[in-house]
Write a structure and sequence with these properties.
The chain is of the alpha+beta class. 31% of the residues lie in helices and 19% in strands. The protein has helices spanning 5-28, 57-63, 85-92; strands at 46-51, 70-72, 78-82, 97-102, 118-119, 124-125. The protein has a four-stranded antiparallel beta sheet with strand order 2-3-1-4, covered by helices on one side. It has a two-stranded antiparallel ribbon with strand order 5-6. A hairpin with a 5-residue loop joins strand 2 and strand 3 (78-82).
């Protein structure tokens, strides 16, 4: 019995596509993303909020009614969001918040807040 290639090929492609999609769906099923519930005000500054490792950054943002622009979980544990002055103050009073800092540009060329002509890590300065 011969199976026609024109019938078998589409079936094989469909089966392979379904099998290939399974690990991706399983890996992303438990990723919890924040649900936006308020529109950030355009006139509010963007802040970076660092929270303790045992706290959920999205849940901390939710407690003050903030909608995260981004949730950080790798190098930094926290979130960025446009925050009102009241939200900033409320976050600074929370025990599981380590830092609340206004987002900005950092430089290392000696003319900004960092560097000042010093080579960090080796203790040399340009004298």
């Amino acid at each position: 019995m011969r199976i026609r290639l024109s019938r078998a090929l589409p079936v094989a492609v469909a089966v392979l596509a379904a099998v290939a999609a399974l690990p991706v769906a399983a890996a992303t099923a438990d990723v919890r993303e924040p649900v936006p519930h308020t529109a950030p005000a355009a006139d509010h500054a963007t802040y970076i909020v660092t929270v303790r490792e045992d706290s959920d950054p999205a849940e901390v943002a939710d407690r003050v009614g903030a909608t995260p622009v981004h949730v950080y979980r790798t190098v930094l544990h926290g979130f960025s969001a446009r925050l009102s002055p009241e939200q900033v103050e409320a976050l600074r009073e929370m025990h599981d918040v380590e830092a609340v800092e206004e987002d900005g540009r950092a430089t290392g060329d000696g003319d900004g807040a960092f560097g000042h002509g010093q080579y960090w890590g080796w203790g040399f300065s340009d004298v």
